[in-house]
Design goal:
Layout lengths: L9 H7 L40 H13 L4 E5 L2 H9 L7 E5 L4 H11 L5 E5 L4 H7 L4 E7 L11 H10 L3 E5 L4 H4 L9 E5 L13 E5 L2 H14 L5 H11 L2 H21 L3 E5 L9 H7 L6 E6 L3 H11 L4 E2 L9 E3 L21 E4 L5 H12 L1
Parallel strand pairs: 2-3, 2-4, 4-5, 5-6, 10-11
Antiparallel strand pairs: 1-7, 6-7, 8-9, 9-12, 11-12
The protein binds ligand P1T.
Length: 383
């Protein structure tokens, strides 16, 4: 960060952190430094960049911006959300143990269950709304608590400050996947988390045109270790993908306001619908952790899930195939609305486990289109 941007507000940081006019030409927008290597004047005498896996100016601008948006000291960008999570998991050693929420993105569970368990890292999944259950799950070997809030796809809200406290008592790291909320709605580092991770594919990128990941923190030691893993394992984003996330992040604040307003209106409409059994949205007063969500989040975002009273999985699939504006697709957080069936799509990897969501659950990623058009689309699809 060139000037002291730390004191500035979120909206300003999103547009300016790491993004001063470029020195050689004055270009107002950070250029796409599409190069794999950097010429050196003499051996070891470079301009801060030598090889683009280690560092690239476009990626560096993004990393500075991500750190500012999460109120962290540093940020690291990755080729996908999973690549960032994989880097965090590589902090662990054989014999270590992880306590994880029991309603996390299916790919996160799969990473720990199918890859890291093979390398001797144990894992226990637990409902993190039950603090006593989390305490029971923590052992002497527990080195990391993996917290997602709101959760994917049930929209449970987890008390991040309380989880961080439990982690620190056990001398373990508190890691928060902040993908659903985005840093505009919630800043886990300020609540005591050690690391925040994102799929920047989602709200940070915001336009469904890039896959990326991020890890942000404060500790210099964790920065060194994760930067080493990032470079040694090499899961870095290219310059164009870094640029797309950086450009998307500029409008995060205004997008999240609209996502939240649309999400709230649709949740309220669904809650009143005679064919709807239940709606999971932290902004509804009926949500079991609504009070916690109000404390922890600025507003409630664009993600929600619901179940119909009858018909189960088959009816849910039929509804998902009948919308015209909501595209039937995996992913979330873009300006366009998406609809999906988690158990058959994004969470297929937890089918048959205790993490499996209900088969008839429908998940919406509410975009920023006209909310009247979105409601009309759902009304038609639900019938
Ligand atoms: O897809 P990728 O950028 O690698 O991010 C993985 C990831 C991590 N964390 C959360 C909370 C996520 O939701 C995801 C990806 N999720 C979807 C693709 C989805 O539709 O839920």
């Amino acid at each position: 960060m060139g000037k002291d941007l730390r004191k500035q507000s979120f909206e300003t940081l999103a547009i300016h952190a790491g993004q001063e006019p470029e020195q050689a030409t004055g270009a107002v927008v950070v250029p796409i430094f599409q190069t794999s290597t950097f010429a050196q004047e003499a051996v070891g005498k470079d301009k801060g960049f030598d090889y683009a896996r280690t560092a690239n100016p476009t990626r560096k601008a993004l990393e500075t911006c991500l750190a500012a948006l999460e109120s962290g000291a540093w940020g690291l960008a990755f080729a996908s959300g999973m690549a960032g999570e994989d880097a965090i998991a590589h902090l662990l050693n054989t014999g270590d143990h992880v306590v994880m929420g029991d309603d996390v993105y299916g790919g996160t569970y799969r990473l720990f269950k199918r890859i890291f368990e093979r390398h001797g890292v144990g894992m226990t999944a637990v409902d993190m709304r039950q603090h006593a259950a989390v305490k029971r799950a923590i052992t002497r070997k527990t080195k990391l608590l993996w917290i997602e809030s709101p959760t994917n796809p049930m929209l449970k809200v987890i008390d991040i400050a309380a989880m961080a406290e439990l982690a620190h008592k056990a001398k373990a790291l508190a890691v928060v996947d902040n993908t659903f909320a985005s840093p505009y709605l919630q800043q886990p580092l300020l609540l005591g988390a050690d690391l925040v991770t994102h799929s920047t594919t989602k709200y940070l990128g915001g336009h469904s045109d890039v896959v990326g990941g991020a890890v942000v923190g404060n500790s210099a030691d964790l920065h060194e270790r994760l930067k080493f893993i990032q470079n040694a394992a090499g899961g870095v984003p290219g310059p164009f993908d870094s640029w797309l996330v950086l450009r998307g992040a500029k409008t995060l604040a205004v997008r999240m306001e609209r996502h939240s307003a649309n999400g709230m209106a649709i949740a309220e409409w669904l809650a009143e619908h005679p064919k709807v059994k239940s709606v999971n949205y932290p902004g509804l007063a009926s949500h079991p952790q609504h009070a916690l969500a109000r404390r922890q989040m600025r507003s409630f975002g664009g993600m929600l899930s619901f179940e119909l009273k009858s018909g189960g999985e088959a009816t849910a699939k039929r509804v998902a195939a009948r919308t015209r504006i909501f595209a039937l697709a995996e992913s979330l957080g873009g300006v366009e609305s998406l609809i999906e069936i988690p158990l058959s799509m994004t969470h297929g990897s937890v089918k048959g486990t205790k993490l499996a969501p209900p088969a008839g659950l429908i998940r919406l990623s509410v975009g920023i289109e006209s909310v009247d058009d979105l409601i009309a689309d759902l009304a038609h699809a639900i019938g």
